Amino acid sequence: MQRDDTQNPAMLWVANGEALWRTAPADGNGRSCATCHTDAKASMRGKATSFPRFSKSAGKVITLSDQINQCRTGALQASPLKPESPDLLALETYIALQSRGLPLTPATDKETKQSAARGQQLFTTRIGQLNLSCAQCHDNNAGKRLAGALIPQGHANAYPIYRLEWQGVGSLQRRLRNCMNGVRAEVPPYGAPDLVDLEAYLALRAQGMPLETPGVRP
Predict the structure, then answer these.
(1) Max Cα-Cα span within the chain
(2) Residue 21 in contact with residue 87, Cβ under 8 Å?
(3) Mean pLDDT of the chain
(4) How far is CA 2 from CA 65, 80, 187, 203, in A?
(5) Pairing, β 60-62 against β 168-170
(6) pLDDT, tens digit, for every residue of 1-15?
């Protein structure tokens, strides 16, 4: 399903993202993403491969979805899109698609490296009532099966993904929150520093792998 765009259900989100790219937000200043960046196929090529990364204007490490909202509230003077909302996922998927096939190149600035280091610590820390860490599944037991599903190595190079279980597209943070809920741990809100740090580390784990967005998973 992922390899064939005519069968990949996430391409519906891509189509919506392309429409949103060209449409000015109703509460904005009349500008759209295309006003500044013109054709996404050229201007967005390679951009998604280096997130998360440090943003001087935000003063912190941000994800691609954060960057989209930063542009909305800044250049477009519109309200930010809610985390995990259909419009934000559509725009993120459309933008990431323009870099499909390019290798992931994690940002190398000091702040992002520090974020990834914190993420690595979180990845190996046991949490929740089940007292499990990410590494216990995705390092120690990768390739085995859990309830019939193959345990992957934790390479996050296809997000946003269409997940059959969700019957829709979701972000990497949604998947991380699912895992935390699965081990009965306290689940941080979308955009929490711990989730961004984990994203930064997962980008480092997948360095050099081709971006596959939009992915399809069970």
Answers:
(1) 52
(2) no
(3) 97
(4) 22, 30, 29, 20
(5) unpaired
(6) 999 999 999 999 999
Q: List residues with catalytic annotation.
A: 179
pLDDT(63) > 90 = yes
Rounded Cα gap, residues 58 and 112, in angstroms: 13
The distance from CA 140 to its chain's CA centroid, rounded to whole angstroms, is 24
Are the beta carbons of 46 and 97 closer than 8 angstroms?
A: no
- How big is the chain by its Cα radius of gyration, in Å? 17
* One-letter amino acid of 37: H
Q: What angle do CA 98, 104, 105 make, to 5 degrees?
A: 115
Using alpha carbons, list the distances in angstroms from residue 217 to 21, 72, 161.
Answer: 26, 30, 7
- 149: pLDDT strictly greater than 90: no
The DSSP secondary structure of 89-137, one letter per residue, reads HHHHHHHHHTTTTSBP----SHHHHHHHHHHHHHHTS-BTTTTB-HHHH
Overall size of the chain counted in residues: 218
Q: Exposed (0-12), middle (13-18) or buried (19+): which is 162, by Cβ within 10 Å?
A: buried
Q: How far apart are CA 112 and CA 81, in angstroms?
A: 24
Residues 5/8/13/16 CA torsion (nearest 10 deg): 40
Q: H or E element: which one contains 150?
A: strand 149-150
Tokens of 112: 């992002």
Q: How far apart are CA 63 and CA 54, in angstroms?
A: 9
